[in-house]
Amino acid sequence: MDTTTSTRVVVTGAGTGIGRAAARAFAGQGATVVAVGRREEPLRETAGGRPGIHPFAADVTAEGAAEEIVKVVLDAHGRLDVLVNNAGIATGGPLGTLDRSVITPLLETNLVAPVLLTQAAVPALRESGGVVVNVSTTVGQRGWPANCFYQATKSALETLTRCWAVELAPAGVRVVAVAPGPIDTPIGPHTGLSPEESEAVRAWQLAHVPPGRLGRPEEVAWAITALAAPDAAFLTGTVLPVDGGALVA
């Protein structure tokens, strides 16, 4: 990656949680960050007091959104060095309750959108010798009843990470992923679980995390920026768990 100018970064799902923390972490390192999300107000909060963060409201699942995001970045900032595919939803339900109203948004947000955005970004990333960072989940490597389709989309994203790493290596583009474990983010209320069910899930997670606490979005953001850094140039196809040891416990 060329470091003669500040790094140009796109972070999707940047309005809250891990995406917000990642956008702020990159900006704190001097990068120019285009923070993408569906809602303008959370993006403004992400950017508050940080001139390096530029909010851009867009639905990553919309027709033509991938090309529009890349065009905005290139027109305004001239290049693209890092793409962070973070936007995701975690709705679900047990087998027997799933229908297209649940399945389609999960596929479109967690899998189709990263595919199309990465595809649109590849020409620019080739020019910069850039990096794609996908955000998966360690949940995808374990059984989590009643939420298996969410896990399936994230497992597929990890497969794409490995495939793209091999496919794009000759072009000088790296592809890596972070797989967060139980992180203290607002994604919980959007899973469709009742407050009582959400609390039970959190209790189960805490019981299976060796440090006995939830992770912080900033801890995942550290991993994202580290994997994207020039010092990580020999890492590609890597899926890094950031889960407090939950995967091995």
Question: Would you give an account of this structure?
Answer:
The protein is α/β, with parallel strands linked by helices and 249 residues long. The protein contains seven helices and seven strands, in the order E-H-E-H-E-H-E-H-E-H-E-H-H-E. Strands 3-2-1-4-5-6-7 form a seven-stranded parallel sheet, with helices on both faces. Helix 5 links the parallel strand 5 and strand 6. Helix 3 runs parallel beside helix 4. The model has no long low-confidence stretch (mean pLDDT 92).
Descriptors:
alpha/beta; seven-stranded parallel β-sheet; 14% strand; 249 residues
How much of the polypeptide forms β-strand, as a percent range?
5-15%
Low-confidence stretches: none
Determine the fraction of residues in helical runs and give it as a percent range: 40-55%
* Structural class designation: alpha/beta
- How would you characterize the largest beta sheet? 7 strands, parallel
Distance between the termini: 36 Å
Strand order of the largest sheet: 3-2-1-4-5-6-7
In a few lines, what is going on in this structure?
43% of the residues lie in helices and 14% in strands.
Fold blueprint:
Layout: E1 8-12, H1 17-28, E2 32-37, H2 40-47, E3 53-57, H3 65-77, E4 82-85, H4 100-128, E5 131-135, H5 148-168, E6 174-180, H6 195-207, H7 217-228, E7 239-242
Parallel strand pairs: 1-2, 1-4, 2-3, 4-5, 5-6, 6-7
Helix pairs in contact: 1-7, 3-4, 4-5
